[in-house]
Amino acid sequence: MSEFNSPGATHQTIAPDAKVTLHFAIKLEDGQVVDSNFEANPATFVVGDGQLLDGFENALLGMQAGDEAVIDILPEQGFGMSNPNNMQRIPRKQFGDMALEKGLVISFADASDGELPGMVAEFDERMVTVDFNHPLAGKNLKFEVKILSVE
């Protein structure tokens, strides 16, 4: 019989299937906050359940309750690189009388009638170029975390 397994004897580290509660912020390189829960309730997830992208989860592996860090997330670890195949040119007439502006996000129906957001990248009187890439694709991010508990 070993007594080394008594509760609280060691700090649990973040590993696959661990239940993690944390505060986080995702920021652009210029410091602009994209998402944060530091002023709200903490988030809880299980490593490997798909709630977090692999790059974010992998950055947390080995951390323990009480740890704080700011981690650089490259596009390949985050939301991927911008894919030119996700830029679609659509005839302007399909937008009817809609007032268009660069950066406007419009909801489109995908092949399975799901919702697919696209951002107006550019337009003229004949054609509209819509970017269907994730808005954070191609961006270097700062992932700020404070681990509250690991089970």
Can you give keywords for this protein?
Thrombin, subunit H; four-stranded antiparallel beta sheet; mainly beta; Chitinase A, domain 3; five-stranded antiparallel beta sheet; 5% helix; 1 helix; 9 strands
Report on the architecture of this protein:
It is a single chain. The protein is mostly beta strands. The protein folds into 2 domains: 19-79 and 137-150, Chitinase A, domain 3; 84-131, Thrombin, subunit H (Beta Barrel). It contains 1 helix and 9 strands; from the N terminus they run βββαββββββ.
Supply the CATH architecture of the largest domain.
Roll
Mind summarizing the main beta sheet? 5 strands, antiparallel
Would you list the SSEs in sequence order as H and E? EEEHEEEEEE
Termini separation comes to 23 Å
How many structural domains can be distinguished in the coordinates? Answer: 2
> Helix proportion of residues, in percent?
under 10%
Strand content: 35-45%
Give the tally of β-strands: 9
Summarize the structure.
The protein has 151 residues and is mainly beta.
Secondary structure blueprint with pairings:
Blueprint: E1 19-28, E2 33-36, E3 43-46, H1 54-60, E4 68-73, E5 87-91, E6 105-109, E7 115-123, E8 127-131, E9 141-150
Antiparallel strand pairs: 1-2, 1-3, 1-9, 4-9, 5-8, 6-7, 7-8
